[in-house]
Amino acid sequence: MGCIILNHVEKRYGKDKLSAVQDFNLEIKDGEFLVMVGPSGCGKSTTLRMIAGLENISSGEIYIGDRLVNHLPSKDRDIAMVFQNYALYPNMNVYENIAFGLRMRKLPKHEIDMAVKKAARTLEIENFLERKPRQLSGGQRQRVALGRAIVRNPQVFLMDEPLSNLDAKLRVQMRTEIIKLHKQLGVTTVYVTHDQVEAMTMGNRIVVMKDGIVQQVDTPQRIYSSPKNMFVAGFMGAPPINLVEGKLLEVSRGALEFHTRKYSLAIPDSQSKKLIDKRKAGRSVMLGIRSEHVHLDPAMRETNPHSQIPGIHKLSEFMGADLYLYAEIGASQLMTVRSNIDQGSRENEKVIVTLDMRKALFFDLDTGENLLHDDDRMEG
Amino acid sequence: MKTTSAIRFSGLWRRRAKPFRLTPTEKISAVMLVLLSIFMLMPLVYIFNNALKPYQELFNYPPTIWVRNPSMQNFIELWAITKNSAIPMSRYIFNSVFVAVATVVLVTGVSAMCAYPISKHKFPGHRIVFGSILVTLLFAPETVAIPRYLVVSNLGVMDTYFGHLLPMVAVPVGVFLMKQFIDQLPDELLDAAKIDGAKEFTIFLKIVIPICMPAVATISIIAFQDAWGNTETSTLFMQDETMKTFPFFISTLTSNMANNVARQGAAAAAALIMFLPNLIIFLIFQSKVITTMAHSGIK
Ligand SMILES: Nc1ncnc2c1ncn2[C@@H]1O[C@H](COP(=O)(O)OP(=O)(O)OP(=O)(O)O)[C@@H](O)[C@H]1O
Ligand SMILES: [Mg+2]
């Protein structure tokens, strides 16, 4: 059973310092691929190192399998870890690097040999078992590091930004290989990254952290479409979500409008109802809308006559299949539109953007909380 | 610095297809370095030649550097002199070899075992410990001779090999060098080993020491040279003649011979014998030492 349970886990460095990790509650299921993501310094590595037993826990409990591991040394936790800088033993060749953990566990020679060969075959590194780490490329080194992890058959893999030292292309390739490896072995994996694309593509579930506090734990789809707060909405997704500040006005009973000095946008009834329930009518809020829910298509204008903003096409970024168009909709306020390459306008021409208001999110200005977030499941 | 010049050099190679075309600055520094190395080499050449000069040549005027008729006469003479001493020379040599080897092993071991926790286990007070080790670098050896004598005599290790070894074991430079080196090991390396199930001592022995071989080599050379040439422990702590070391024996010979024109040849031979092991040890470890210099920022 490779499940991991974190119960009110805290980490404080020094005596009265701020916590690096605060009240972390999470249950990671057996065989799950969990990704922890967040900006630099948010406590991802610290959390991972606490699970690994490389860092003491200030308070709380960690269970791996069914064992309380708070005071168990790393080597007895039945885990393997992959580091960003590979951390291969430079004095040993690839074979010895992979075999080291097994030798430490005093396995018989032929078993070690078989296990190493098998791991090497899985990762396609059989051809350089004799080489020293410095004679390998970055990608090959990371494979060896993975080999060192899988050879021991642990209950849990812990990976701390294992791909961030690789170049973009190799990163994508290794990403799919790690996913494949996870499918093949089915070992519970906790994967730390600051790259939201990695998080989205790899995770069964994602933990978004900020300043040592868990912001949201959910599937990639829900993190993206139903973020718990403004931070999660802004952190996940590229290009970043569009945010516009404005006021909620009740135009008729049960119908709200999002109002700024320049334009107003009709809010669909179901959303209006929730916002009114939260007593937000008449209050200022932040509207968030992803670039793919903003349209330039004239056909959209007819179906959504009350959610249009006039703007000026300021610049566009060619992304291959897509084009990101930045429309100025207010004083130094740009709205990103994900559109086709063959959209009509040129730079500095007038455009009308249409918002798909059913997909709009509304955030509390003070707390950043997503006012439409439905807490239909409990976390932790 | 080494790499940049290497890159520049390979660039030169490709551009002009002539490897030894150098810029004026490089030419000048090459000449300077050659001159300097000749200058540094002189004593070495002199020691070798003197030892091989037959008696008459030693007193030629004007003195010559190169030997004309090399002979083993001086060594034979030295052998003859030592045969007359009460204790056979082999005993002194054995003492010296044993003490030198044991010192090298102890010093590298102790330096590494001291540096590793200071560098990688930030226990409370590690700064103070390291600071006080560095402070001891400030004391000239002479200033601690008397306290050292008291310690050795109170420990009751006079006239034992411990009397030779213990005063040599603590080498602050060794600890410093080792720490600088271990500092550069990424913590993740040790974490990985911990997760792999290695105990602290295994990590030290199987990972830290092998990676720090250059530092170990450097410290070995320093320790060997200190121990091999050392007469102080024999003079101060050994009353028993059988416990004294070879350099002490040589120094008594040569100091007795100082005014003795007849024994200059034997003295020259002794000087070579004293010097040779240093040279051999250095040549063996030399390439490793250079990487230490590149690593530790001492260069
Ligand atoms: N040994 C330490 N002593 C004191 N503070 C520390 C220590 N290690 C980490 N911290 C602090 O704890 C916080 C979390 O650090 P952590 O390394 O977990 O961040 P991270 O999310 O992994 O960031 P990154 O993406 O940059 O790796 C940071 O504010 C950091 O300054
Ligand atoms: Mg980190």
Automatic annotation (TrEMBL), chain A:
<dbReference type="GO" id="GO:0055052">
    <property type="term" value="C:ATP-binding cassette (ABC) transporter complex, substrate-binding subunit-containing"/>
</dbReference>
<dbReference type="InterPro" id="IPR017871">
    <property type="entry name" value="ABC_transporter-like_CS"/>
</dbReference>
<dbReference type="GO" id="GO:0005524">
    <property type="term" value="F:ATP binding"/>
</dbReference>
<dbReference type="InterPro" id="IPR003593">
    <property type="entry name" value="AAA+_ATPase"/>
</dbReference>
<keyword id="KW-0813">Transport</keyword>
<dbReference type="Pfam" id="PF17912">
    <property type="entry name" value="OB_MalK"/>
</dbReference>
<dbReference type="GO" id="GO:0008643">
    <property type="term" value="P:carbohydrate transport"/>
</dbReference>
<dbReference type="GO" id="GO:0140359">
    <property type="term" value="F:ABC-type transporter activity"/>
</dbReference>
<dbReference type="InterPro" id="IPR047641">
    <property type="entry name" value="ABC_transpr_MalK/UgpC-like"/>
</dbReference>
<dbReference type="InterPro" id="IPR015855">
    <property type="entry name" value="ABC_transpr_MalK-like"/>
</dbReference>
<protein>
    <submittedName>
        <fullName>Sn-glycerol-3-phosphate ABC transporter ATP-binding protein UgpC</fullName>
    </submittedName>
</protein>
<keyword id="KW-0547">Nucleotide-binding</keyword>
<dbReference type="InterPro" id="IPR027417">
    <property type="entry name" value="P-loop_NTPase"/>
</dbReference>
<dbReference type="InterPro" id="IPR003439">
    <property type="entry name" value="ABC_transporter-like_ATP-bd"/>
</dbReference>
<dbReference type="GO" id="GO:0016887">
    <property type="term" value="F:ATP hydrolysis activity"/>
</dbReference>
<dbReference type="InterPro" id="IPR040582">
    <property type="entry name" value="OB_MalK-like"/>
</dbReference>
<feature type="domain" description="ABC transporter">
    <location>
        <begin position="4"/>
        <end position="236"/>
    </location>
</feature>
<keyword id="KW-0067">ATP-binding</keyword>
<dbReference type="InterPro" id="IPR012340">
    <property type="entry name" value="NA-bd_OB-fold"/>
</dbReference>
<dbReference type="Pfam" id="PF00005">
    <property type="entry name" value="ABC_tran"/>
</dbReference>
<dbReference type="InterPro" id="IPR008995">
    <property type="entry name" value="Mo/tungstate-bd_C_term_dom"/>
</dbReference>
Automatic annotation (TrEMBL), chain B:
<keyword id="KW-0472">Membrane</keyword>
<feature type="transmembrane region" description="Helical">
    <location>
        <begin position="161"/>
        <end position="182"/>
    </location>
</feature>
<feature type="transmembrane region" description="Helical">
    <location>
        <begin position="203"/>
        <end position="224"/>
    </location>
</feature>
<keyword id="KW-0812">Transmembrane</keyword>
<keyword id="KW-1003">Cell membrane</keyword>
<keyword id="KW-0813">Transport</keyword>
<feature type="transmembrane region" description="Helical">
    <location>
        <begin position="28"/>
        <end position="48"/>
    </location>
</feature>
<protein>
    <submittedName>
        <fullName>Carbohydrate ABC transporter permease</fullName>
    </submittedName>
</protein>
<dbReference type="GO" id="GO:0055085">
    <property type="term" value="P:transmembrane transport"/>
</dbReference>
<feature type="transmembrane region" description="Helical">
    <location>
        <begin position="128"/>
        <end position="149"/>
    </location>
</feature>
<dbReference type="InterPro" id="IPR035906">
    <property type="entry name" value="MetI-like_sf"/>
</dbReference>
<feature type="transmembrane region" description="Helical">
    <location>
        <begin position="92"/>
        <end position="116"/>
    </location>
</feature>
<dbReference type="InterPro" id="IPR000515">
    <property type="entry name" value="MetI-like"/>
</dbReference>
<dbReference type="GO" id="GO:0005886">
    <property type="term" value="C:plasma membrane"/>
</dbReference>
<dbReference type="Pfam" id="PF00528">
    <property type="entry name" value="BPD_transp_1"/>
</dbReference>
<feature type="domain" description="ABC transmembrane type-1">
    <location>
        <begin position="93"/>
        <end position="285"/>
    </location>
</feature>
<keyword id="KW-1133">Transmembrane helix</keyword>
<feature type="transmembrane region" description="Helical">
    <location>
        <begin position="265"/>
        <end position="285"/>
    </location>
</feature>
<comment type="similarity">
    <text>Belongs to the binding-protein-dependent transport system permease family.</text>
</comment>
